[in-house]
């Protein structure tokens, strides 16, 4: 009789540890933000990026606005934002975002965008007007802009960061060795240069890295050293969570103790502020970063 070999069994996926549990978004403050976002036809990275802190942040009356549409020209393997050929380019968007921020009474606003590689100026004019009009309507509101990779269009970068925002952020996302896997259309050195150029014009600089993609401790130390060498002030470190089955799987769930270790390492290596924890995302506790000395 032929020997019947058993079917191979795929290894079971690691379950999310207890420290990654989040509360569902509820409450009147959350509902108020939900209504304003819907009424003004605004995009938020909170929704598009499946952020685990949406309940906490929206419950506090804050949100991270995403301008220039909700379709990205990049296809990063970690990101839940839709990829394709964008059709939306609304020159009235800066007014709508500024009015919504004013209506919400936001004390600190975070503004980000999808990549718009097909636009000659990468959407820089919309970026600039959004910051300027927000400042005009809400002069007491501080602003962080989380700017994507401009693909070395440094004139576009100069326009994007000239509106008067207090913090300019650009996320590295991962260590250098994983760029081809995680950010296939990005370049590690180019993102470092974007941060360096931002610092050279006197801006408060910020970046973020996801952990649990397969990076080693030594690679993390090198990334922090590279960021310090290129003028970074503020670093956020958080756990990567797979948004859908089509995206990269989590290589490892990082224990909170290691996040605490990386925070101490980052400060010791010259960073001025490190926000580090499993559920930390780019805009988490962003209002605290405005006071970091330049």
Automatic annotation (TrEMBL):
Pfam families reported in the protein's UniProt record: Radical_SAM
Domain of life the protein comes from: Bacteria
Pathway: Protein modification; protein lipoylation via endogenous pathway; protein N(6)-(lipoyl)lysine from octanoyl-[acyl-carrier-protein]: step 2/2
Catalytic activity: [[Fe-S] cluster scaffold protein carrying a second [4Fe-4S](2+) cluster] + N(6)-octanoyl-L-lysyl-[protein] + 2 oxidized [2Fe-2S]-[ferredoxin] + 2 S-adenosyl-L-methionine + 4 H(+) = [[Fe-S] cluster scaffold protein] + N(6)-[(R)-dihydrolipoyl]-L-lysyl-[protein] + 4 Fe(3+) + 2 hydrogen sulfide + 2 5'-deoxyadenosine + 2 L-methionine + 2 reduced [2Fe-2S]-[ferredoxin]
Residues at which [4Fe-4S] cluster 2 binds: 72, 76, 79
Keywords linked to the UniProt accession: 4Fe-4S, Cytoplasm, Iron, Iron-sulfur, Metal-binding, S-adenosyl-L-methionine, Transferase
Domain Radical SAM core intervals: 58-272
Names of required cofactors: [4Fe-4S] cluster
Gene3D superfamilies noted in UniProt: Aldolase class I
Chain residues that bind [4Fe-4S] cluster 1: 46, 51, 57, 283
Keyword Iron: yes
Stored InterPro entries: Aldolase_TIM, Elp3/MiaA/NifB-like_rSAM, Lipoyl_synth, rSAM, rSAM_sf
Localization of this protein: Cytoplasm
Any one GO BP annotation for this protein: protein lipoylation
Molecular function GO terms recorded: 4 iron, 4 sulfur cluster binding; lipoate synthase activity; metal ion binding
PROSITE patterns recorded: RADICAL_SAM
UniProt-listed CDD domains: Radical_SAM
Enzyme category, top tier: transferase
Record carries keyword Secreted: no
EC number per UniProt: 2.8.1.8
Classification via SUPFAM superfamilies: Radical SAM enzymes (SSF102114)
Gene Ontology terms: cellular component: cytoplasm
Cofactor binding, per record: Binds 2 [4Fe-4S] clusters per subunit. One cluster is coordinated with 3 cysteines and an exchangeable S-adenosyl-L-methionine.
NCBIfam families to which the protein is assigned, alphabetical: lipA (TIGR00510), PRK05481.1 (NF004019), PRK12928.1 (NF009544)
Family in the record: Belongs to the radical SAM superfamily. Lipoyl synthase family.
Protein name: Lipoyl synthase
Record lineage: Bacteria, Pseudomonadati, Bacteroidota, Cytophagia, Cytophagales
């Amino acid at each position: 009789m032929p020997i019947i070999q058993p079917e191979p069994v795929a290894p079971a996926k690691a379950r999310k540890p207890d420290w990654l549990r989040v509360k569902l978004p509820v409450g009147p403050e959350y509902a108020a933000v939900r209504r304003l976002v819907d009424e003004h036809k605004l995009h938020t990275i909170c929704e598009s990026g499946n952020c685990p802190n949406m309940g906490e942040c929206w419950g506090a009356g804050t949100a991270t606005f995403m301008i220039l549409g909700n379709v990205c020209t990049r296809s990063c393997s970690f990101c839940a934002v839709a990829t394709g050929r964008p059709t939306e380019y609304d020159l009235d968007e800066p007014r709508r975002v500024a009015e919504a921020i004013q209506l919400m009474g936001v004390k600190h606003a975070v503004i980000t965008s999808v990549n718009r590689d097909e636009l000659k100026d990468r959407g820089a004019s919309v970026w600039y007007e959004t910051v300027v009009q927000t400042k005009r309507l809400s002069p007491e509101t501080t602003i962080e802009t989380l700017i994507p990779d401009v693909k070395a269009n440094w004139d576009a970068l100069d326009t994007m960061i000239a509106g008067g925002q207090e913090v300019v952020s650009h996320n590295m996302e991962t260590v250098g060795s994983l760029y081809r896997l995680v950010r296939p259309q990005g370049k590690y050195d180019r993102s470092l240069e974007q941060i360096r150029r931002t610092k050279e014009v006197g801006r408060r600089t910020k970046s973020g890295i996801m952990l649990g993609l397969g990076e080693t401790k030594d690679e993390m130390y090198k990334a922090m050293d590279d960021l310090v060498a290129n003028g970074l002030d503020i670093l956020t470190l958080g756990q990567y969570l797979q948004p859908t089955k089509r995206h990269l799987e989590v290589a490892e769930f990082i224990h909170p103790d290691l996040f605490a270790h990386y925070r101490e390492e980052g400060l010791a290596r010259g960073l001025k502020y490190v926000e580090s924890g499993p559920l930390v995302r780019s805009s988490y506790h962003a209002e605290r970063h405005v006071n970091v000395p330049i």
